[in-house]
Amino acid sequence: MNFNRENVDRIRKEIEPFGARLLAVSKTKPVNSIRELYDYGQKAFGENYVRELQEKQAQLPADAEWHFIGHLQSNKVKYISSFVSQIHGVDSLRLLQEIDKLAGKNKRIQNCFLQIFIATEETKFGLSFEEALAILNSPLLHQLKNILINGFMGMASFTDDANKVRTEFKALRKFFDEQKNQFNAPTINLKELSMGMTSDYKIALEEGSTLVRIGSAIFGERINS
Ligand SMILES: *Cc1c(COP(=O)(O)O)cnc(C)c1O
Q1: What is the DSSP code (8-state) at residue 93?
Q2: Nearest-angstrom CA–CA distance, 10 and 15
Q3: Over pLDDT 90: what percentage of the chain?
Q4: Angle, helix 31-39 to helix 50-59, in steps of 10 degrees
Q5: Ligand 1 mean position, distance from CA 27 (Å)
Q6: How close is the Cα of 186 to the center of ligand 1, in Å?
Q7: Ligand 1 near 173 CB (within 6 A)
Q8: Chain centroid to CA 160: how far?
Q9: 198 Cα nearest atom in ligand 1
């Protein structure tokens, strides 16, 4: 068994009462491990690297659902645009324009989450609430025909301080709730809140996450990521 079945069973039970979904983060993990988990009923997988995602997608059944959760460069969108279900880490209008262009070529509507910066660490990507609002209100966004901003993604600080993590998730949830019904535009329909990883997904669920992104608890620790 190349994944931790006990943990998968437990996580499924834990998220069920919240009506949330599990995204299995499979970055750096081999295709055979992903395939085993797929056969165990997990269909949604998250990857951080474009080339790796491309290779894995080609080897898994076509109904596997792939999410790109890393930092996406505009010049690499073309490699995943034909199949990726959800892009989590969108942090600029320029990137949205590129995603839109390629989604159009592929005759798809591309689901995107704006990544919002909620941590206090300098290393995490993402938009401030003000920057996110500027994008959501931009006439340039509303001209796009092939993207849908269907939620937000956020990463809490990497800390043992559960209260700090909770405060950060709470802030994103509040922003999400405030913005949810503010836009009457075909490019925006805020439904999902992607929050929570192995170390903090329980707090994230309590604070309103609809999609938890879990890697190590399922596939074991990564050697390098
Ligand atoms: C790697 C990664 C995860 C999963 O992290 P774990 O701690 O292994 O659960 C979740 N979200 C993002 C954006 C990641 O890069």
Answers
A1: H
A2: 9
A3: 95
A4: 50
A5: 9
A6: 30
A7: no
A8: 23
A9: 9
Joined tokens for residue 42? 């997990």
The answer to whether residue 3 scores a pLDDT higher than 60 is: yes
82-128 pLDDT tens trace:
999 999 999 999 999 999 999 999 999 999 999 999 998 876 689 99
Q: Are 195 and 28 in contact (CB under 8 A)?
A: no
Residues whose CB is less than 8 angstroms from the CB of residue 156 and which lie 6 or more positions away in sequence, other chains included:
118, 119, 164, 165, 168, 169, 195, 200, 203, 204
> Residue 141 and residue 131: Cα distance in Å, rounded?
13
State whether the Cα torsion 85-21-50-26 is positive or negative.
Answer: negative
Q: What is the pLDDT of residues 16-72, one digit of tens each?
A: 999 999 999 999 999 999 999 999 999 999 999 999 999 999 999 999 999 999 999
- Distance CA(6)–CA(215), nearest Å, equals 14
For residue 214, count other CB atoms closer than 10 A to its CB.
Answer: 21
The alpha carbon of 107 and the centre of ligand 1 are apart by a number of angstroms equal to 30
- Tell me the whole-structure pTM to 2 decimals: 0.96
Amino acid at 150: N
List the one residue out of 204, 209, 203, 198 whose CA is nearest residue 27. Answer: 198
